[in-house]
Write a structure and sequence with these properties.
disordered N terminus
């Protein structure tokens, strides 16, 4: 998990979500990019999240739409496959709001390669305030037995803490864990939008309790 912050904002409760978008007054599009080695579960996680509300935009791009507080939220989830094969900056790297970095608890190299993916993204995406860009590290296969684990939860937590990265584990077999990750995505997206809108332009470090509260609220919406 990421580290401390010196200020917080009150988080207002949002009304229940709905997929009826006919009366929405505002449309919010959010681009979520999933990076990581092959075979760590990127595609499974994306498809599990969008579920029955899936809208296939093109190969590797899924959309989940829902209404919250009279706003239409469209989460465009980009599942990248072998992005190393592109000779130029792939379109998946452009205009990203949140980046998920996925590894497998039973594949040590996939965890070690997270540094590579972070570096590649920052270089190729050419984003502003790269040092404070919201990454979420996702450890798949939390349900594997201890003898099959090659990276412990504590090791991953410590590494993410030291690098100011949010970390959580999932199982693509359990929908609730997938919803929790995307709840974190929405929580970090909201905070970043609020902080970028400050007149000072200062990006505060993540306040854990605030993100947790927002995450819980969004998870409820995703269950509807």
């Amino acid at each position: 998990m990421p580290v401390r912050n010196t200020s917080s904002k009150n988080t207002s409760k949002m009304s229940s979500a709905s997929t009826d978008l006919s009366s929405c007054n505002e449309r919010v599009q959010i681009k979520v990019l999933i990076l990581g080695d092959r075979g760590v579960g990127k595609t499974s996680a994306a498809r599990k999240f969008v579920g029955n509300t899936c809208e296939i935009i093109s190969q590797g791009i899924l959309r989940k739409s829902l209404r919250v507080n009279n706003k239409q939220y469209e989460l465009n989830v980009f599942d990248t496959v072998s992005v190393e094969e592109f000779g130029e900056v792939p379109p998946e790297y452009k205009d990203v709001d949140i980046c998920l970095l996925m590894y497998s608890a039973s594949d040590l190299s996939s965890f070690k390669n997270l540094t590579y993916w972070i570096s590649k993204f920052k270089k190729e995406a050419n984003i502003k305030n790269a040092d404070t860009f919201p990454f979420v590290v996702v450890g798949n296969k939390q349900d594997v037995p201890d003898y099959a684990r090659l990276i412990s939860r504590k090791e991953a937590d410590d590494w993410c803490w030291n690098n100011n990265l949010w970390h959580s584990e999932i199982s693509t077999k359990e929908e609730s864990t997938i919803n929790r990750i995307f709840g974190v995505v929405m929580a970090l997206y909201e905070r970043r939008q609020e902080e970028l809108g400050q007149s000072s332009g200062t990006i505060n470090r993540i306040l854990i309790i605030d993100v947790i509260i927002r995450t819980m609220t969004w998870c409820l919406h995703f269950k509807n």
